Amino acid sequence: MKKLTCLFILLIISVNSTYSQNIKNEYSLSCDSACHIYNTEMHTNDYDIVIGREYKIYHNYKKGNPYLNSRQGKGIIYSKGYAYENKIILYDMFLDEIAVNTSFKNSSNTNVKLQKVKIDSFSIEFHNQHYHFIHFKSKSSGANQISSGFYEIPYIGKYQLLFKYTAEKGEAKDGTTEYRHKILHFLKINNSYFNIDSRKRFLALFKNHKTQIKKKMRSWKGRYKTTSPAQLIELIKYAETL
After folding, report:
1. 131 and 122 in contact (C-beta within 8 Å)?
2. CA distances from 23 to 19, 236, 239 (A)
3. How does pLDDT run across 131-141, given as a tens digit for each residue?
4. Nearest to 53 by CA among 86, 95, 83
5. Across-strand partners of 40?
6. CA angle, 193 as apex, 96 and 98 as ends, to 5°?
7. Residue 138: phi, psi to the nearest 5?
8. Cα(68)–Cα(130) distance, integer angstroms
9. What integer pLDDT is reported at residue 153 of this predicted model?
């Protein structure tokens, strides 16, 4: 009887061991499967990028707002080698932050302010207007440098042209706060950045070729401040040949 009892106990232990091993194997397969799903699918949705606090409107609806083109646009966000497409993006130029509409509908007011540090660049479209902004991370400070933030780079050659879109806070005639849009222009020469928002500043960068550049400017028959991006790029290309 005692031998039979011992044999029964050994049988139970054997069955439990086998069952436990099977559970372990099934669990391992499940983990592998989950990892595979994450690596192949998770990076195509919002879980990796739409992380942040709710973006709350802070401007007066009846006054100028701080948004690029004054509204949301459709675009792509690039982060750590992945592209997150078909996003409804709001670029706040005053805060230099972007927010994404979580429902992918223009009618929704639910937006999430993304973690800026995770964004490498983003593209945004408004009907026939297209912009691409890179997240410039300044490694130094001081003279002839620019601050970190989102910049558009419309031209790269011997020199590099950068646009910084901003919204300046001001006061309307009725005393309420409003925002005025402005674009700052910078020219990168070697590893230095120079503001070229005035004719005088541009000419100061090419002291030995002022005569030729002035002649080129006169051919536009317009003021330097009304220069279009295409004309400015043409002028920079010309300066590169001198």
Report:
1. no
2. 6, 69, 72
3. 999 999 987 76
4. 95
5. none
6. 10
7. -65, 135
8. 11
9. 96
**In the prediction, which pLDDT does 54 show?**
86
The residue type of 173 is: K
Task: Tell me which of 68 and 1 has the higher pLDDT.
Answer: 68
15-38: burial string, b at 16+ Cβ within 10 Å, e else: eeeeeeeeeeeeeeeeeeeeeeee
Which strand (E) or helix (H) includes residue 171?
Answer: strand 160-171
Q: How many CB atoms lie within 10 A of CB 234?
A: 16
Distances (CA, A) of 25 to 36, 100, 164: 17, 42, 56
81 DSSP 8-state letter? T
Q: Which residue has the tokens 């910084």?
A: 164
Length of the chain: 242
Q: What is the CA radius of gyration of the chain?
A: 29
99 bridge partner residues? 90, 113
Between the alpha carbon of residue 191 and those of residues 34, 53, 139, the distances in Å are 46, 36, 11
- The mean pLDDT value for 20-46 works out to 43
CB atoms under 10 Å from CB of 216, counted, come to 16
Q: For the chain, first and last CA: distance in Å? A: 107
Residue 35: C-alpha distances to residues 38, 44, 80, 108, 226 (Å): 5, 15, 19, 33, 55
CA 235 vs. chain centroid, Å, equals 28
More confident residue, 175 or 193: 193
Query: Is the alpha carbon torsion for 94, 96, 99, 105 positive or negative?
Result: positive
Taking only the tens place, the pLDDT of each residue in 53-111 is 888 888 877 778 999 999 999 999 999 889 999 899 999 999 999 999 876 445 456 88
